């Protein structure tokens, strides 16, 4: 089985004023990791401290900031 460790920075959303392509890249990265986590051939790990680190930086929980990103990026993620 292949094992990978995700760096905490992968979960950090782009700044609220990020261009649309950065927002789309962030979402694509999250979806790629979600797919990897669903693959039974791959063990995906991250540090237990990831949520605490992101919270200290004001980047977690993700949902409030993530809800504003599409509008600030100038277009919706489903475009």
Chain-averaged pLDDT: 82
Q: Could you state the order of secondary-structure elements as H and E?
A: EHEHH
Shape: globular
Distance between the termini: 36 Å
Question: In the residues, how many domains can be counted?
Answer: 1
Report strand %: 5-15%
Proportion of helical residues: 40-55%
In DSSP terms (H or I, runs of 4 or more residues), the helix count works out at: 3
Summed up:
The protein is mainly alpha-helical and 79 residues long. Helices cover 48% and strands 10% of the residues. It has one domain (2-73).
Plain-language structure description:
With 79 residues, this protein is mostly helical. The chain has one domain (2-73). It is built from 3 helices and 2 strands. The chain has a two-stranded parallel ribbon. Helix 1 links the parallel strand 1 and strand 2 (42-45). Helix 1 (20-38) crosses helix 3. The longest helix is centred in the middle third of the chain and has 19 residues, at 20-38. It is globular, with a radius of gyration of 14 Å.
Looking at this protein, list some descriptive labels.
about 80 residues; mainly alpha; two-stranded parallel sheet; 2 strands
Strand and helix layout:
Layout: E1 2-5, H1 20-38, E2 42-45, H2 50-56, H3 62-73
Parallel strand pairs: 1-2
Helix pairs in contact: 1-3
